[in-house]
Design goal:
One of its GO terms (molecular function) is ATP binding. The chain has 3 domains: about 35-150, 3-Layer(aba) Sandwich (Udp-n-acetylmuramoylalanyl-d-glutamate--2,6- Diaminopimelate Ligase, Chain: A, domain 1), CATH 3.40.1390; about 150-315 and about 360-385, Mur-like, catalytic domain (UDP-N-acetylmuramoyl-L-alanine:D-glutamate ligase, 3-Layer(aba) Sandwich); about 400-550, Alpha-Beta Complex (Protein-Tyrosine Phosphatase, Chain A), CATH 3.90.190.20. With about 550 residues, it is of the alpha/beta class. The structure holds ligand UAG and adenosine-5'-triphosphate (ATP). Adenosine-5'-triphosphate (ATP) binds near residues 417 and 421.
């Protein structure tokens, strides 16, 4: 299924600056060979809609069944927000609305044809362009995108990263290892999409961690065109079961870990696990790299339907690669990866916490397993020259306090497991007090709130509960669950309830003394929160800096 390695990446200089660009400068190839609508219909097994009634508008008169084969398609769009002239618009029946009710809008934006289901055809018929009918428009979106962009044949080696925590961090590790090898790299995930040195914020590109199939295929085609040697794609469970990754030829897929999340969507851990495991099948990936430190990981390695390389911190786990942390400071984590064959990679990651060593080790193991054809010697030489893996991961244990003697970290983690992992690591780095500022999501799994409150309080000295991202829920109720849990289960803990997140951050920083660490969990890189169903600007990074200045810890502008 996969072609012999052909590294097409031009070397990138480490000093080259990044460039913010328009969405389509990354998510679409520059050139697309037009494909006739007839050929597309044949390959999709779609039928041309032939309404029982006569055409109702003059526009439709000119777009009869006979004329449709002459229509040339140069792109695919699954939403009206991303239609370009020459596209076929795939109208999907969603949970909230049917895409076909936006058919006219799509045509006004330049769509030359519409693909939808029988129900959608009823709406789309009057839009003035040929309508193709399929049984499953969501599958057709991925299939049509793969056909139009020829994504099965791309040279770019694709890595998928899934798991409950650490997806974003691990994608940046993969990108950094690829760059260290002197190759052009790409990335797509919760924070941004990157092709070479061009970046677009995910908030300007549909907001989804794993974008819809048309965007992902367009992005992959652009990467191929721009000679990106390899790219790391963050794959959420919604991305897998929503068909967003269908048709993309992942070379190696990484499983970081698995713990409670998204139960509002999946109902049970079993169903959530099954959604993730669908990635580890020959339909989606050639190989897998899986962490087997716990039972879920061991099970994932057993149930994967593709060849697996296992990785563990636990020396007793019998993994292919065992990871040992040798030294850890707030600035870096030094680690050794030992292969069962005896091969060893000694290196460093420029982030604090044992889990960052694990994420970096996953990236290294995946690159070694990939069809890039990199040997352990190549890798040792590249990382040696560069002094290890040094990703800059926006909003993941990101130091927001500069040189101030109070250290403040901003982080996107919003699960019990990520709170526990990061706080336990930070605990080791201070003899002073450890502060936790956090809240919990609204309109999402309520059962995880007490567990988050527990994880926030176990090893900390002071906890500040604030609003986080209430969406349409009453934020007071969310805070009450968190505060009640802490007061009941950790009566000795110093706890404050401060509704406004910026004021909560200020409260923690006002109480902190030199040597203390303040951890702000949840907001990470984000620049907004959803309150009462509306997006409101808020940046934890800015709030931290404002508070540090107001408390006299920072003097710079
Ligand atoms: C459950 C889920 O994943 N839902 C996604 C799904 O929504 P839906 O099926 O309800 O679609 P809909 O809103 O009814 O719209 C139907 C169709 O009409 C189209 N449309 C709609 C309106 C319009 O003006 N024009 C238009 O063309 C839409 O593009 C869509 O194709 O398709 C929509 C269009 O792409 C997505 O925005 C929406 O994600 C919602 C917003 C969401 O919150 N998804 C989350 C759960 C998610 O996917 N999260 C994961 C990360 C999870 C993690 O942190 O691990 C992610 O990958 O982002
Ligand atoms: N291997 C790991 N195990 C546990 N926690 C981790 C690991 N790697 C990173 N983390 C922490 O988990 C939190 C989430 O990290 P990250 O954003 O990388 O994960 P994610 O899976 O992309 O999450 P999301 O889907 O919510 O964006 C952060 O606190 C991060 O520091």
């Amino acid at each position: 299924m996969f072609a012999k390695p052909r590294i097409s990446g031009a070397p990138v200089g480490g000093s080259r600056g990044s460039q913010r660009v328009m969405d389509t400068e990354i998510t679409r190839p520059r050139r697309s060979a037009p494909i006739s609508l007839r050929e597309l219909a044949d390959r999709l097994g779609a039928r041309l809609d032939s309404p029982a009634t006569e055409p109702v508008s003059p526009a439709r008169d000119t777009e009869t069944a006979d004329s449709s084969p002459r229509v040339a398609v140069t792109g695919v769009a699954g939403g009206t927000d991303r239609v370009l002239p020459g596209d076929v618009f795939v109208a999907i029946p969603g949970a909230r609305t049917h895409g076909a009710s936006f058919a006219r809008e799509a045509v006004e934006a330049g769509a030359v044809a519409i693909i939808t289901d029988a129900a959608g055809a009823e709406h789309a018929r009057d839009a003035g362009v040929p309508v193709l009918v399929v049984e499953h428009p969501r599958s057709a979106l991925a299939d049509a995108s793969g056909i139009v962009h020829s994504t099965r044949a791309i040279d770019t080696v694709l890595f998928a990263v899934t798991g409950t925590n650490g997806k974003t961090t691990t994608t940046y590790m993969v990108r950094d290892v690829i760059k260290a090898l002197g190759l052009r790299a790409g990335l797509a995930g919760t924070v941004e999409r990157i092709v070479g040195n061009k970046h677009i914020d995910t908030s300007d590109s549909g907001r989804l961690t794993t974008p819809e199939a048309d965007v992902l295929h367009g992005l992959a085609a652009r990467m191929h065109e721009d000679h990106v040697a390899a790219a790391a794609i963050e794959v959420s469970s919604h991305g897998i079961d929503g068909g967003r990754i269908d048709g993309l030829p992942f070379d190696v897929s990484i499983f970081t870990n698995f713990s409670q999340d998204h139960l509002d969507e999946y109902g049970t851990m079993e169903r959530y696990f099954a959604a993730k495991m669908a990635l580890f099948t020959p339909e989606h990936t050639r190989r897998a790299v899986i962490v087997i430190d716990d039972e879920w990981g061991k099970r994932a390695a057993r149930e994967a339907q593709v060849p697996v390389t296992t990785v563990a911190m636990d020396a007793e786990a019998g993994a292919d690669w065992t990871v040992e942390v040798n030294d850890t400071t707030l600035a870096h984590t030094e680690f050794r990866m030992r292969h069962r064959s005896g091969d060893v990679v000694d290196t460093t990651v420029g982030m604090p916490g044992w889990f960052t060593a694990l994420d970096a080790a996953l990236a290294i193991a995946a690159v070694l397993d990939s069809r890039l054809g990199i040997t352990a010697d190549d890798l040792r030489a590249a990382l040696g020259e560069r002094g290890g893996v040094h990703p800059s991961v926006p909003g993941r244990i990101e130091l927001a306090s500069g040189d101030a003697p109070v250290r403040v970290y901003v982080d996107y983690g919003h699960t019990e497991a990520s709170f526990r992992t990061v706080l336990q690591s930070l605990r080791e780095f201070t003899d002073g007090r450890l502060f936790m500022v956090f809240g919990a999501d609204g309109d999402r799994d309520r059962t995880k709130r007490p567990a988050m409150a527990r994880a926030a309080s176990e090893v900390t000295d002071v906890v500040v509960v604030t609003d986080y991202n209430p969406r349409t829920e009453d934020p007071t109720e969310i805070r009450r669950t968190l505060v009640d849990t802490i007061r009941r289960e950790f009566p000795e803990r110093e706890v404050y309830e401060v509704a406004a997140p910026a004021e909560g951050i200020r409260k923690a920083i006002s109480l902190a003394r030199a040597g203390d660490i303040v951890f702000v969990g949840g907001h990470g890189h984000r620049r907004d929160v959803e309150v009462g169903g509306k997006l409101v600007p808020f940046s934890a990074m800015d709030a931290v800096r404002d508070a540090l200045r107001a408390e006299g810890w920072l003097t710079s502008a």
